[in-house]
Amino acid sequence: MKKILRFAKIIAMSVSVIWGAVLFGNVLTANADDTATETVNIVDTNGNTLRAPQTIPVGDGKNPINVNISGYDPAETLEKIDTTFVYPSGSDTPSGTITFTIDDDKQVAHITVSSGDESHDGGYQTKDDIEKTLGVKLRTINEGLAKSMDKTGGVYFYTPGEIPELTLKNLKKAIFTVTYKGATIPVEYVDSNGTVVGNDTITGIIGKTGSYTPIAPKGYQLVDTKTIAYDIAKITNPTIKIPVTAKAPVVPSPGGGSSTIVTPTTPVTPTPSNPTPKPTPQPAEPTIPNYAAKKGAAVYAIKGIYLYRSANFTKSRQLAKYPKVKRVNRPMFVVTDYARSNGGALRYKVRDVNHGSKTAGKVGYITANSKFVVPVYYQSLPKNKKITIINKRGVNAYKNANLTGKVKHYQKGARLTVKKIVKHNLTTRYQLSNGHYVTGNKKLVIQGNY
């Protein structure tokens, strides 16, 4: 916690009076490393790169980078901005990331500061707050975040801005990532009764055209097997509806599989035939089993997995690969929704929260199979009521379950006795025998003596 608070203080120095706009371009100066660079990435929530990354020397404010992309109105489609500050190993200032995330429903921009495995809630700003600060009328909170960035110099959405220079001592590298909403075309598989029995999503960059190959949901067959041409003209596009029919039930042949039917010579009183039962349509919304992680909860991969564009996993839909790694480095995701493949397999819709990695911020689908993905936080007490600290930077103990009121720091390898597990929002804490609390994060602690 000490490191993240120190990082938060450094970031506060790099936040202008414009409520939190990260200073870039002519505003940043790395006075201890003349080779320091700043890289600007522009992506969407589907993991697509909207423009090739641009890298310039820190302090090059004479050539501001326009991060507005044709077809993507920032006032409607700006979703998130991440800025990562990288400092040399052993520096007094730890590396970290400040993230601005838009909540369209509440019309607020949340601020999160993270360093290493810890994160800090930096509060939020409303559209009204930004209107008062900038002295302008805004359509949306998205536009407010974009116009705040225009005041920083170095990067801009609408009009280049300029404010006084600020020095960030020893800065080695800065990475600025703008994330726009991903463009999608919903796909619905509809039976003869007009019931939606399956869903899919076509994703891509605005302006992309292509052909979609339909795959019938389990228990159904396509009326037409031809590919379907599509054109992604905007962020939200009209739904493609694909007609399907229920597969006829397989009736076993009489006589143990014989295909010969013997007609009796004596008339037989016919028995009424049962009508062919109609298959129960698969629900458009997935049924969630008890083992599934809740929306908003963190999960991590215990084996190698891929992130996909849709719930139907194919090689062409892969967004990112996550190989199997050591426990403390396992990739983490936040579950934002659920979906099922056309074959009925449950998927998690997730956001990659591996700060500082190339995949950070990507949104897509991963398997919900518990052999591959499990909750990050423990849900039970260890049998021997012992836990061991495995995080190389150790773990703090606190007076309160919300991890406030630091009382002690435990080094890696410390073995602690716990008496209770406590839920806090969608996370858990272990209460120690002395009444203090530590995290229940499996990347930081492990049950038992190790």
Tag the structure with descriptive keywords.
mainly beta, Ubiquitin-like (UB roll), seven-stranded mixed β-sheet, five-stranded antiparallel β-sheet, 5 helices, 8% helix, 39% strand, signal, DUF5776 domain-containing protein, DUF5776
Short characterization:
8% of the residues lie in helices and 39% in strands. With 450 residues, the protein is mainly beta.
Task: Write structural notes for this entry.
- The protein has 450 residues and is mainly beta.
- Helices cover 8% and strands 39% of the residues.
- The chain has 4 domains: 2-180, no CATH class; 183-246, Roll (Ubiquitin-like (UB roll)), CATH 3.10.20; 298-375, no CATH class; 386-447, SH3 type barrels, CATH 2.30.30.
- It is built from 5 helices and 31 strands.
- Strand 6 and strand 7 form a beta hairpin.
- Helix 3 runs parallel beside helix 4 (141-150).
- Residues 253-286 are annotated as: Disordered.
- Residues 1-32 form the signal peptide.
- InterPro entries: DUF5776.
